[in-house]
Amino acid sequence: MASRTPGKELLRRYLKAHGIKVAAAAEALGVAPAAIFQWREGRTKPSAVNRAALETWSSGFVPASSWPALPAAKQVVPYGAAS
Length: 83
Fold this sequence. Notes:
The chain is mostly helical. The chain has helices at residues 6-17, 22-29, 33-41, 48-57. 47% of the residues lie in helices and 0% in strands.
């Protein structure tokens, strides 16, 4: 079953409704234009930090909770530390 990503649709709608180009959104959020493009197309998902930034930048139109959860990262144990 394909997972739905309302975040990408909300981002797409927000950009279109406000006439915002990918490059302008990227500059405002401090990311590469390719990142905005990838998020908008659903190819990648923004990190937690970028999700929060999107929510703030869009005045809540693209809430951080609109993106599916990212898989938990493996915990890195420093070399020599007990596991």
